[in-house]
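your task:
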Amino acid sequence: MLKISIIQLLPKFADQRQNIKKINKLLLRTSQSDLVVLPELASTGYNFINKEQAFSLAELPENSEYVEMLVSHAQKNKQIIVSGYHELYDNNLFNSSLLITEDGIAGKYRKVHLFMNEKAIYEPGDLGFPVFSIKGLKLGMLICFDYLFAEAWRIVGLKGAEIIAHPSNLITQNATKA
């Protein structure tokens, strides 16, 4: 049986240090889980004012304190962790999800269907809809607004996904706060 933890939190916008501390504390409660899913843009929060602000908070996954912390938890608990991530790659910004295992970054998905002002900040995902084989599990990933597009689910399903991790960060007025 697969044990899954879904962590719901309201990241404090632009306060990565506080968000990382909060997420670290929450991850300590998931030690018995096989798979842990964190929100979209978990370490930075959501709703950047402009692209300059977004660039100032972006990180390369390979040099990220946040990713190091996730890998440490994955190693300690022999877990799979999926987390939304504000990614800098080749001088472009992506709203991404990272697939973390005890070996490090095992996969990545970049949000294809951008919502509202995300189009002014992020590039649309350029990795397609990958499915990863991890610990005998076929795992796909989508991010938030992607859920409205049936073809995304269909493609991931046709590629054999047994489970789809779907980090979200709902920001509309009538969304329930964590």
